[in-house]
Amino acid sequence: MVLKYPFVTEKATMMLEGGNKLQFIVQRNATKQDIKRELESTFEQKVAEVRTMMTMKGEKKAIVKFADEKAAEEFLSRLGIM
């Protein structure tokens, strides 16, 4: 399992509303292709873009943009966050 958990903050919520993007904390050794593959198989939606970065706490964070405009909101509602 590459994904650990969704990263939900006020800034992440603004990215969701404005850019159809979700943030996830992932394993440190996960590649962009691993993240994309797991998200597409888990949620059955096309991923348009994956960007990764390291947080100040030493965790790896992935910012994922989906091809479908409503996919990000649907995922958060499936997970019970929104």
Automatic annotation (TrEMBL):
GO terms for biological process: translation. GO terms for cellular component: ribonucleoprotein complex; ribosome. One of its GO terms (molecular function) is structural constituent of ribosome. It comes from the Archaea. Signal peptide: none annotated. Keywords: Ribonucleoprotein, Ribosomal protein, RNA-binding, rRNA-binding. Pfam families: Ribosomal_L23. The keyword RNA-binding applies. NCBIfam families: PRK14548.1, uL23_arch. Belongs to the universal ribosomal protein uL23 family. Binds to 23S rRNA. One of the proteins that surrounds the polypeptide exit tunnel on the outside of the ribosome. Part of the 50S ribosomal subunit. Contacts protein L29. This is Large ribosomal subunit protein uL23. It comes from Methanoculleus thermophilus. The gene is rpl23.
